[in-house]
Design a protein that fits this description.
The structure is a single chain. By secondary structure, the chain is mostly helical. The chain has a 3-stranded parallel β-sheet, covered by helices on one side. The longest helix has 31 residues. The chain is globular and about 65 Å long. The N and C termini lie far apart (65 Å). The relative contact order is 0.13.
């Protein structure tokens, strides 16, 4: 059994500390940017669906979110979590899905329609009295049976 030297342990501890410091710095900068641009936050969140949609969110390292121009694959789990956060956000009036020819199976389309129904339920649970419900708008460029199934579950096409 090989013992780690004091130098190796200290280097690893320093690396962990620096990593946590960078992560905290990025989070603080992102929150500051959001606070400064709060008046310019759009009324609707736009989610483009232009490539394949997977069932489960792939495991990717946390730092990949900070790589510019890196397009992470979308999943139904990610969309569900995003819509839950959007339902809790009081400044957002709804979601616009840009359907740019995604390859969806009929099962995925039905799952996405169920996520839309859950979004409406989450919104009604957190919406104060007197406010209008958040809307789901779907913009279609091409139409197929699965895409039309998703569009039928939206509020506006």
């Amino acid at each position: 059994m090989k013992q780690e030297s004091t130098w190796t342990r200290a280097t690893r501890a320093l690396g962990r500390t620096l990593g946590q410091a960078w992560q905290a710095t990025f989070c603080a900068l992102a929150n500051l940017r959001r606070r400064l641009l709060h008046s310019r936050i759009p009324d609707y969140v736009v989610i483009p669906l232009d490539h394949e949609l997977s069932e489960l969110t792939p495991d990717v390292p946390w730092w990949t979110a900070y790589i510019p121009a890196l397009k992470l694959p979308l999943s139904l789990g990610y969309l569900s979590r995003a819509l839950r956060r959007i339902a809790a956000e009081p400044d957002v009036q709804g979601v616009v899905f840009l359907m740019k020819g995604p390859s969806l199976s009929l099962a995925q389309a039905q799952s996405l329609a169920q996520i839309f129904d859950r979004f409406r339920r989450w919104d009604s649970e957190q919406r104060p009295a007197g406010r209008a419900p958040k809307r789901i708008i779907v913009h279609l460029e091409t139409v197929s049976t699965p895409i039309y199934t998703v569009a039928c579950a939206a509020d506006l096409v």
